[in-house]
Specification:
The structure holds three protein chains of three kinds. Chain A is α/β, with parallel strands linked by helices. In chain A, 33% of the residues lie in helices and 25% in strands. The chains are: A alpha/beta, B alpha/beta, C mainly beta. Bound molecules: zinc ion.
Chain lengths: 354, 375, 135
């Protein structure tokens, strides 16, 4: 649907943990042909340290978003924390981040779960809250320490990272939301049962009926609603479970590689689930110019996709300079072994207590 | 003010006493100290233990001990001032007698530090720091010893190697002490190459974990005279607290100790050269600083003088005698008593004064006990 | 290990932010939020939020094992001088022990201090990391 252009991005922030593991090492350990790694177009993935989780990473991203926006945290009236790796199954992550950042106690506050697109839903809700003037600012966070069963092909991509967007009134924004469409169905391509440690998935079934179908539908409806075509967009960011799918879906929709690559970060850090498309979007904002139109498309298994059309305004460069950029975070890295990664992500079973 | 004398003392060897609980350890020294004192009755018992709640799962240790030991009903109190609890017990006993509240006080220091695996005991003992500010934020006592050691080395341009002289000396001293936990010699290279605890602190810069118990009977002159125990006078026991490490202007100084020693000098005109001392060397860097605060050595140069110190930590110190936390302060007084009255392993001190220093953390609190020979 | 809910909760502002107690009587500022000045005992204090940025004055690499820190070892514990001139000790993360330097610029970030695994609470609070970007 077409939006009133009255809500936009006031600030944004990203967090990528410093540790990286070469995907080739994981593939070799579990006996995958390393050709699979190149076909997935993913070189390395980020690894949250043992004292990090989606709350701590989300905190950092949100802090940078607030710093960039130069807003008083007490004026933030809502926090939506999109994750599928909540540290607590019951107990909100959003309130921890809210109190730690000194955000107003009079706020809407909840954790959203919709596989990898809960962060996208957080963005949609935030835009609506701002448009309706229900709150002055709203914070949408996507953060995950993505779980994958050791040895599952998913382990080649599942990684850790966070992104946060501070949504506020158009006059303070450096980019405004022009339109948004959400397209969801009941499609069981990927799930994790209550109390199970690792998700299960339909492997090739996650592709065509899930990822591709939902993204194609959300984007096509958006283009129709707004009366726009592919060539009206300078950049297109798609959810990126691997380095291959975003380019394929782009091609399917008529977006050339050049428009997709600037926002494609998965080859360098893996699939950060709820932060995946959002980190790509942040990277694009950090190189965008006033007047650029950006297509942002999330996807979450289960399944659904949000497509946003965003138009960049003046001042984006200045706001970008107030925090670490995605490229700077990509450069901050140290390689770790599989054993170090296994310890950091608690893949090694330990008995607790003495 | 009434004079206070040491009527008798008792210790057991510090070790991993797996087959004896705190009741047996305390029972052994109580029996012994009571026999040695030849006093008619006990008016008060003061028990010190640092880890009773954590390690023994026991509250009101003093009452439970009187019950277990079949002692005649009497007032009994347990004191805790962290690692200096033992000397705090002496301090309370001394105060009870000087105030006229008691004529004979039984002081019992007891600690069972081996009831849990080391990493659990390490968590327990870390709580001598501020739990809310330091412990919860993952700071532990050896971290502070390490930061202080680095600062000391930088400030006085002293090498890590030069600071190995203290633990080596303490292990030598402990060979003469029948109650010591670590009775073997070490070398500077053994100190340097031992497992790291918190760089640059290694295992041999730190006290070992062990169980122990020591007891004293303090008596007023009225009681002491009757039994011919007017030998060693407890001249004074003083204590002070200080600020946490991160609020200190100079972390190579122990200010509460400095305050206490100057107070004793002023009040009693005693000179440190006339004293045999037991000091709280929980980490070797603390020994160097304590020596300097006490005026035994020059600032930044104490390591050069360690070799010639005959009457400091004759016992082997916390480093080698051991550090059964709440009992340590009682051990120290017993050791000074022995070295002044009977001699220990061929060492006898004939001078006028004995001084014991006990503290918790890096001088978070410090206590000094001044003993004086009467005959 | 089981920590207390209320001890942590009551002071969470002091764990989630670097708070300083500024004394109006003696003029000194000190780490942690208190209702009295630890230097002079005055109650005439105000709590101010530090930027959380500073420099490493000294540090130690700790292998001292407790049943609440063993997952995180070795720990780098640093003495940090905050930009406000106040000293604080705390954990330094995201740096190899061999790469820590005195004078290194650091910033405070939210991490886990410990957790009462597997069913208990997670204790979050600030630690230091080398600054990601000077802004
Ligand atoms: Zn003050």
């Amino acid at each position: 649907m077409k939006l009133g252009m009255d809500a936009g991005i006031v600030g944004w922030g990203v967090y990528i943990p410093r540790k990286r593991i070469k995907v080739k090492e994981i593939a070799e350990l579990w006996g995958f042909d390393t050709g699979l790694v190149s076909s997935l177009r993913i070189e390395e993935k980020s690894v949250a340290d043992i004292d990090e989780d989606s709350v701590t990473m989300g905190w950092y991203a949100a802090k940078v978003a607030i710093d960039r926006g130069e807003v008083n945290p007490n004026e933030i009236g809502a926090i939506f924390f999109g994750t599928e790796s909540k540290p607590y199954a019951v107990k909100p992550s959003a309130t921890i981040v809210g109190d730690a950042l000194g955000i107003s106690r009079r706020k809407l506050s909840s954790d959203l779960e919709f596989a990898c697109r809960a962060g996208g839903e957080g963005l949609r809700i935030s835009v609506s809250l701002i448009s309706s003037k229900a709150v002055k600012y709203s914070l949408a966070i996507g953060s995950d320490t993505a779980q994958a069963n050791p040895g599952d092909v998913l382990e080649l991509t599942a990684s850790s990272g966070a992104a946060a967007f501070l949504i506020g009134p158009e006059r303070e924004a450096i980019a405004v939301f022009e339109g948004a469409v959400t397209y969801v169905t009941d499609t069981p391509d990927f799930w994790r049962r209550d109390c199970s440690r690792y998700p299960s998935h339909g492997e090739i079934f996650t592709g065509e009926p899930a990822y591709f179908d939902h993204i194609v539908n959300s984007v096509n409806i958006l283009l129709t609603d707004l009366g726009l075509k592919e060539s009206d967009f300078k950049y297109a960011i798609f959810h990126q479970p691997n380095g291959k799918f975003p380019l394929q879906v782009g091609k399917l929709l008529g977006f050339p590689k050049e428009k997709v690559l600037p926002g494609l970060v998965t080859p360098m850090i893996g699939n950060t689930y709820n932060a995946s498309a959002l980190i790509g979007f942040a990277r694009v904002l950090e190189q965008a110019r006033a007047g650029d139109r950006i297509l942002l498309v999330t996807f979450g298994s289960g399944a659904g996709s949000d497509a946003f059309s965003i138009v960049v305004k003046e001042g984006v460069e200045q706001v970008a300079s107030r925090g670490p950029t995605v490229n700077e975070l990509l450069e901050r890295k140290v390689y770790v072994s599989y054993s170090s990664y296994a310890k950091s992500r608690r893949l090694i079973e330990r008995s607790i207590g003495w | 003010m009434r004079d206070v004398y040491i009527a008798s003392s008792s210790m057991i060897n510090i070790s991993r006493h797996f087959n004896r609980g705190y009741k047996e350890l305390a029972g052994a020294v109580v029996k012994d100290v009571v026999e040695g004192a030849s006093v008619e009755q006990l008016d008060y018992m003061v028990v010190s233990s640092m880890l009773a709640e954590s390690s023994l799962n026991q509250l009101d240790l003093a009452t439970i001990l009187t019950q277990h030991l079949g002692l005649k009903p009497m007032p009994a109190i347990r004191v805790d001032t962290g690692e200096s609890s033992g000397l705090a017990a002496v301090e309370i006993a001394y105060s009870l007698i000087t105030a006229g509240r008691a004529d004979t006080v039984l002081v019992v220091g007891v600690e069972k530090a081996t009831e849990f695996p080391t990493r659990v005991t390490n968590r327990f003992l870390s709580k001598v720091l501020d739990y809310e500010v330091e412990v919860l934020r993952n700071i532990t006592p050896p971290n502070y010893a390490a930061l202080i050691m680095k600062e000391y080395m930088k400030k006085y341009r002293v090498s890590r190697e030069e600071l190995t002289v203290w633990p080596v000396k303490m292990h030598d001293n402990a060979l003469r002490n029948p109650y010591a936990q670590l009775k073997f010699k070490i070398t500077p290279s053994k100190v340097l190459n031992a497992i790291k605890i918190s760089e640059p602190i290694t295992l041999y810069d730190m006290f070992p974990i062990g169980d122990g118990a020591a007891a004293l009977i303090l008596a007023s002159s009225r009681v002491a005279r009757k039994s011919g125990k007017e030998v060693l006078l407890v001249r004074d026991v003083v204590s002070a607290t200080s600020r946490p490490l991160y609020l200190r202007d100079d972390i190579t100084r122990f200010e509460s100790l400095a305050t206490l020693i100057s107070m004793l000098r002023r009040k009693y005109g005693f000179r440190i050269d006339d004293a045999v001392c037991e000091i709280h060397d929980s980490y070797s860097i603390y020994a160097y600083i304590i020596l300097e605060e006490l005026g035994i050595a020059r600032r930044g140069a104490s390591y050069k003088e360690v070799e010639n110190l005959v009457y400091v930590n004759v016992s082997g110190g916390l480093k080698a005698r051991g550090h059964p936390f709440g009992a340590t302060g009682v051990y120290q007084v017993s050791e000074v008593y022995n070295v002044m009255v009977k001699g220990v392993g061929g060492v006898k001190f004939d001078g006028a004064f004995g001084l014991t220093h006990s503290m918790s953390g890096p001088d978070y609190n410090s206590r000094l006990c001044l003993l004086e020979r009467v005959v | 290990m089981r920590s207390s809910i209320s001890i942590f909760w009551r002071r969470k502002d002091s764990y989630y932010k670097v708070l300083l107690t500024r004394c109006k009587r003696c003029g000194r500022a000190s780490f942690f939020a208190r209702d009295v000045c630890p230097y002079c005992g005055s109650s005439d204090v105000s709590i101010v939020k530090s930027s959380g940025r500073g420099r490493v004055v000294s540090y130690t690499v700790s292998y001292f094992r407790t049943d609440s820190n063993e997952e995180y070892l070795p720990l780098v514990i640093a003495l940090v001088r905050l930009d406000e001139g106040v000293y604080v000790t705390g954990e330094l993360r995201d740096v190899e022990p061999a790469e820590v330097r005195e004078g290194m610029e650091v910033e405070a970030v939210l991490r886990r201090y410990s957790s009462d695994d597997p069913y208990g609470l997670i204790y979050y609070g600030l630690k230091f990391i080398p600054v990601i970007k000077r802004c």
